Amino acid sequence: MDSTMPFALLLALLVPTLLHFVIRRKYSSYNLPPGSLGFPLIGQSISLLRALRSNTDYQWYQDRIKKYGPVFKMSLFGSPTVLMAGPAANHFVFSNQDLIFTQTKAINTILGRSILTLSGEELKRVRSALQGYLRLEMVTKYMRKMDEEIRMHIDLNWVGHKTVKAAPLAKRLTFDIICSVIFGQGIGPIREALATDFETLVQALLSLPVNIPFTKFNKGLRASRRIRKVLREIAREREAALQQGHSSSADDFFTYMLVLRSEGTHSLTVEDIVDNAIVILTAGYGTTAVLITFLLRYLANDPDILGKITEEQEEIARRKGPNEPLTWNDVSRMKYTWKVALETLRTVPPIFGSFRTAVKDIEYHGYHIPKGWQVFTAQSITHLDGNFFSDPVKFDPTRFDNQTSLPPYCFVPFGGGPRMCPGNEFARTETLVIMHYLVRQFRWKLCCEEEGYRKDPVPIPVLGLPIELETRSPPEYAHA
Ligand code: HEM
To answer: Where does the chain cross the membrane (predicted)?
Structure first.
């Protein structure tokens, strides 16, 4: 045996025990939740990350809930953390005013002064501006651009191909859509470089903030500088156009935010507007790409559901002229397709959970949560709970036939409360338009039936979901 082994074992036993006593002393007057903080800094982070990667996170939560109950403490990503399980816990985490978004050093440094890092009145103003930009009425205006991007992408990347990898294609498509909306026109040739830089930036958001060459954090920081440079130039151009009265449309994000500033709605500088554009771009493509990827994965194995979706989409197509773009009216008819998407979000939520930090001592179910501690709620805990969704492992879109019968806060793919995802209408619209064109043009088979997926931290099939494509003829199908 290695001579350092007994020492390491001793340390492994001693450190958590010592920490336990230190915490007990420090919070002697508190009724802390049960559980263990584990090793300092590391805590249960590696164990949870491992469970996410092997897609056993649901079991990971359940094992601990069985042991400690639905509220328990642990240590995640360097902070003491309380996991809370159940709809009431979701409501508490999403709505409590004394809980703020957890701001890691990586997020603060890479994303700058954005909606994710602001607080107080400034946060309210920025949140309301972003919500305004992504509200339904605005999304209907973006539909033409979405429709155009989607058709172009399919012609270029799907038509004529025998096999494609669905996951990277879905990511690229959702990235192109959000770019074309946020920037308006004029970034065509630099999209490629931006797409690569955004991938590097996203990878760095959960990294350790070690700024030495070749670390994820360092690469992310450099990518964010390059992105900022490009976006700053575009923002300044739009500002100059606006000042000279040349701006014809307020649909691009920069012009929209600059107009709101001139009306006194917020006081963000150009630099801040750039930071918020980076957040919308970052939040707005990987998540929807997961939904598209897993929709394709489920539909490959379920000809009945695919048949029903196709019927719905063909019916919509029959009312339109050839090559006529989809409108909001068309999307609002895609009710069944959206139920299938909701069931996909229930079974594979793109965001595995939400973290908040207590700004003062708070209490939940008789337990004290000290100031500075994190709280954490995981979506799969309620999404896969048989008390709310009967036979929860079954893929069954009909459970969304009557959505109002679901207890509040048990289905939370877009979060909830004042920080609920402002991009949900955007995500819904692009998902439905993408599915309209894909199901009408193609049938597909999984190249690898056994392909699993990991959460890294967003769910991704391990091989990127290679699928075999077959082109179908829409008119023939429509009249079958
Ligand atoms: C299926 C797709 C999507 C899912 C499942 C999703 C999920 C979520 C969730 C769960 C949150 C809240 C996190 C929390 O409370 O801890 C969130 C926040 C956010 N999402 Fe989405 N999202 C999606 C698409 C989008 C899109 C398309 C955009 C933009 C175009 C977007 C922009 C944002 C922004 C800016 C926030 C932060 C809100 C704030 O800080 O107040 N999301 N999203």
So the answer is: 277-299
